[in-house]
Amino acid sequence: MAGEAEDLAARLRAEFPHALRNGQVVAYYQPEVEFATGRLVAAESLARWEHPELGTLPPALFTRPSVLPSTTTAGSPSGTRNWPRSTG
Question: Quick one: which of 19, 30, 37, 60 has the most CB atoms within 10 Å?
């Protein structure tokens, strides 16, 4: 089991730069609505990796330190600091 997790982490680590370059990491926008008024007060951007073989991956899979060690020191994976502002 641990070997499979390590294999997946290694695979995702190798494929992530390609995913960023090829638009596989996409933003899903989630509105935040004030319950009392129904007024939109904010929105958050949720990253998802649309992996061609593994399907839609949540950030918990591809932002783990075993996949992207820089997330523990820089706060965001290399190349994603301005994302999604830099996309679309």
Answer: 19
